[in-house]
Design goal:
By secondary structure, this protein is an alpha+beta fold. It has three helices and three strands. The chain has one domain: GMP Synthetase, Chain A, domain 3 (2-Layer Sandwich). Helix content is 42%, strand content 21%.
Length: 81
Amino acid sequence: MRSSPLSTLVGLIARALVDHPDRVVVREVDGDHHPRIELLVAPEDIGKVIGKDGRTAQSIRTLLAAAAMRAGKRAHLDIVD
C-alpha cells in the first residue's frame, strides 16, 4: 500500500516530535469529500503531539492544510488516542 504525500508529511512531523517514532502509525481514510488522516502514537507520546493547549496539533493541521491546498485538495487530521 502506497501512502499519499499528505500522510507522509504527517508521519514525518509526528516522528520528529515523539520519543517512540517506531510506534507512529498514519492511516488515510477516504471521507465523504476529503481524505481523513488518522495519526496514532504511543500513549506516552500523545501529549507531545497535541502540545500545550493543543498548539502543536493545530500547527500540524495548519501544515497539512497548506500542503493539501497546494495539491488542490482538502484534508482533515484526527489524532486517535
